[in-house]
Amino acid sequence: MKPAPFAYVRPDSVAEACEILAADEDARIIAGGQTLIPMLAMRLARPTKLVDIVRLKELRGIRSEAGAIVVGAVTRQVEVERSELARGALPLLMKALPYVGHPPTRNRGTVGGSIANADPSAEIPLVAVTLGAEIEIENSGGRTSMPADEFFIGAMVTSVMPGDCVAAVRFPVWSQPRLGTGFHEVSARQSDFAFVAAAAQVALDEDGRCIDAVVGLGGVGDRAQRIDVSALVGQDVARFPVSELIRSATEHLEANSDLHVSADYRRRAAAALGARALEDAIAEARAAGGVVQ
Amino acid sequence: MNPAAPLKFVSSNRRVREDRRFVAGQGRYVADIALEGLLHVAVVPSPHPAARIVSINAAEAMKMPGVHYVLTGEELAKATEPLMNGLDTPNVRRYPLAVGQARYAGEWVVAVVAETRAQAEDAAEKVRIEYEQLAYVIDSEDAFDPKSPPVHAGHGSNVLLDKTFVWGEVEKHFAESERHLSFRVVWGRNSTVPIETFGVAAKWDPWREMLDVWASIQMPKYPDQIARALRIPLNNVRVHFDVDVGGSYGVKRGIKQTVLVSHLARVLGRPVRLIEDRLDNMRAGDAHGPDRIFDVEIAFNDDGIVNSMKMRALDNVGAYAGRSPFQLGKPIGAIVGPYKIKSVQYRAISVTSNKAAQEAVRGFGQSPTNYAIETAIDKVAVALGLDRIEVRRRNFIRSDEFPYLIPSGTRYDSGDYHTVVAKVRAHADYEGLIRERDTLRAAGQCAGIGIAACLEPSGGNSSFEPLLNEKNTTTTWMDSCRIVVDGLGFVTATIHTTSSGQGHETLVATVIGEVLEIDPDLIRIVRPDSLNSLPSNTPVGSRMAIMLGGAAFHAAQKLKAKIIKLAAHQFGCAEQEVIYAGGAVSHGASGKKLAWAEHVNIAHRNFHLLPEGMEPGLETTHVMQVPTGTKLPENGRVQMYPCHSFEFHLVLIVFDPVIGKPEIRRYVIGHDCGTVINPHIVKGMTLGGIAHGIGASLLEEFVYDSEGQMLTQSFMDYLLPSSHEVPKVEIVHHCTPSPFTVFGQKGSGESGYLGSPAAISSAINDAVAPFGISLAKLPIRIAAISDAIAAAREAKAKVKA
Amino acid sequence: MKVTLKVNGRLRTADVEPRKTLLDTLREDFLLTGSHAGCEHGVCGACTVLIDGEPSRACLMFAVQADGYEITTIEGLAPAPGELSVVQDAFCETHGLQCGYCTPGMILSAHALLEHNDAPTREDIVEAISGNICRCTGYGQIVEAVEFAAERLRKTNAPRNVTGGSDDEPSIDPAAEAGAREGGVLEAAATRQGGRQ
Q1: Which of A51, B95, C103, C196 has its CB 3.0 to 4.6 Å from that of C97, i.e. a possible disulfide?
Q2: In A, which residues are within 8 Å of C21 by CB distance?
Q3: What predicted TM-score, i.e. pTM, was given to this entire model?
Q4: Is residue C81 one of the residues assigned to a domain?
Q5: Which domain holds residue B688?
Q6: ipTM strictly over 0.90?
């Protein structure tokens, strides 16, 4: 299980990387390599050239910026897990990260790599879609950004064009003091890709009425998706029939069947885990009296 | 040994000596062996489950950088004999590479040799093979159908074996029984899947006419099979046993890989090696395990006493026969489990199909059979509304009934099943466990208690071979040890096979230390190569504590006897008058004493002081035949293995009815393998066996789709349990010594694995019982649980409507 | 391509194809065969090495990517030939292995955990080794080994920044050479408790 031959380059800037990528459409970016290298080893991917961006400082780091946390594409997953900044501002991402692979792959795997790989059951894309993150893309024309929901097109398919490089992910930060999150997933083994993953974030006012709520599901169809929970907004969450809301929102979801689980299973699990995630988020928000930074 | 004397080293918690080199990364595995000028092999797999090979064009591949050779099955078949079949099926021919026809997707068709493995893989992609697709069969029952396309046309059908045994008055017992029930359970194809794949390196020296082989092997008669296949004298084959094997648990039987590589080494005059990569290994390492359908009928009384059983076991061995059909034979030695079932009808059917070839897996077919038997006992209890442990207790053989002759001809050596169960019940607080289950159920969870009681036949011989193949008259199944005390008094002993983590060096040192009363840590253990070796049948059939331990014991006894004789001669007294203690011999009456160093000196340097006829030096050898292995089968009955360890599993499993993901909340096992030689090793075997059983029952399966393609080729889809999936296990010990072994030891190499699939299935079925459903196929996937509950709920809702 | 890697504190150079993994380079070019190939697709963990102290798959990194990091293999853990680190010794004490094939990766994962956390819970240990598949042991005695090692590390009074052994003793532990990392504690403890080996 050895990769087919390829050339290796390590550009000094994103601009140079984009130039190389634009010039050779069979060149591929490598960052953490935790998904790409198995594909190379099995010769399921056969790039002519690997463009290593993992040491580009301009793509690394976690910073707070205008109501958002911007995570550079080559920031390793473990660095986010250990980040005080992310811990305070992105509680949903913090809940999801322990489900990403296992510790050794999180030590090398990058946030941008997970986004660019666009596995339908991957946790980081799910959080990005759920929170309405923006994906920043750089190419020879400069930096642009697009909502995660538009970025992900299908299983392992994104809006990235030849010559593009995912540069950062801009996760919106909710500033409401009474904030709660929930994350659940089911997989064959804990470290496997999720059959279904559910993420929820809720903000409440002082009276326990919902100010904002989002619920996202991964693993069900060919990309992560948000489900409509707008009915919750303005309602007293203590009395709201959360399970029914989620059930009706998931009833007609397109779902995939595979070796391990059926489409029916995915729909049932989506309803159950979606409700559980939302209930957790509500409970956490209700318990949160203090101010979240 | 003096049975009254307390054991000094045996059964004590001593460290396992092998561990030191492994924790330092200093194991020596086959891939670590550096050979000058080594060439590497990659293989070209068949993309089709059945296809005639029309043509092979290697021209482009030969031109690739670093390539030395491209070998086809046709060429290899001309130069070699077909690989060994266990049954008398001469037209089921098997070679390392497909000859004329590929018989399963992934089968190796062409081998490419190059300077590096990467180059060999590059060239393998360039081999052009034209195929003509043929009809194929995947499903076991389809394969048994005479209308199915035969995998081997020359054999005429897919049936390798279809033999019905009737032991006792089955029909009478069925007629007399108050109740009957019948069911089908399915054991999905899985395997032990060691983390080290199979690997082999071979070197041919034409001037010395010597084939040197290094391999991650665990197989009886390995050098013999190499010599036969290559048509060379056995004394031209030298297998190096000082190679660490990275796990096997039965499957490391890489004879096809070895013949392939050895042939290439001879052709090329350079050392050649093949280290399977994970895809090679999963697709076509020919190391899958049993793939079995059981149809069981049980005849029993209202009080839960089981009188008789009819079992039909249909096993799908894949494209080639090998020894795998024998995995239907070994369970005959424990076909009634720990129960007093009076009569049994057993129909064993082995079929070929267009799946990868099957190989021996831990327990050699016993774990699937235990799963079927235990499912039957659970069903009897449920049918009668009786407690499942109580039904087992009523059917158990009592401790005063041993040795106990079962209907199929094996005499169980010893056991105390009632006591083990009582200890586990008390330890686990069975009633409390039931309350916990019921509390969980009341809270809306699915919760179930799993129970399994089963035997681990151990001390492996090969009685199933003559039982299933009358042309085979093998009854000898020995193991050996040699002990040498050198001229400075240091002790070295031998093992004549490879090991794959079982701690055999610790075993031999412990046993010899015990007998000679010297510190085991001072005893050197070595592994001579096959040309310098005494006979061994390798660590199969949970036999080494009994057989290698036994051989070491007897060799040490002989050594001790020689020392005593030598000393008595010096004292001028009778041998019975001296006492051996701690390596010294003393004569009570005269007060004379000879120390260890003095025996050594006399034996090595003072021929004039030796008794007449005594050979100089201090060296003894023992070749030990398996206890009770004395007869060929008669009337379909045979003494299978000599010893029978017992295990009793008690498990609590919980899951959400919608999500269906089982969580093992509690796992208790009672284990009785007689006298334990090294407690660390036995514990590790048991815990590892349970983890392996968790994989087999919940996660692991080689799945083929309707196109004959294997879907679980990598570790992304073939799911090995991680530390998250294996719970903390509590072990309750009991010791019922075997009367047939030197210390009363029994085997433990398969412990845990032989009952955990049954126990986990039992727990999940108990958990879903309130829905009126059962899950009858392993592995029990998350979705299978959830889908079955959803269907049951839907059906109930419809009925209500 | 020519690469210079820092392995177990030593700079080593090899000429490799870009497609050659760090694992194959360690094994074939540097003859460090304690790192094992199990699946070569990042699942089993037999090839685990430490990269800047963090457990990583050596099969999921190419050698050409690995320059500039501190790479530690199992060969770099023993304080001296024939002498074991506390973690290695703990694996021997509880028999936290059988065939030894997954063991180097398992021990490196355990070592990394204990560098961050010398009082891990069972859950911490299970999580830390969850990327290392063992087929032999069922993990029970491995968890016990890590618990035992943690206990011994807690019991030693060694200051966290002191290395064991005197200056003139050869050291192959990069952490010890660096002089201030916690790897040195393991070494110190091993030296102190050497009698148990």
Answers
A1: C103
A2: 37
A3: 0.95
A4: no
A5: 292-463+631-798
A6: yes
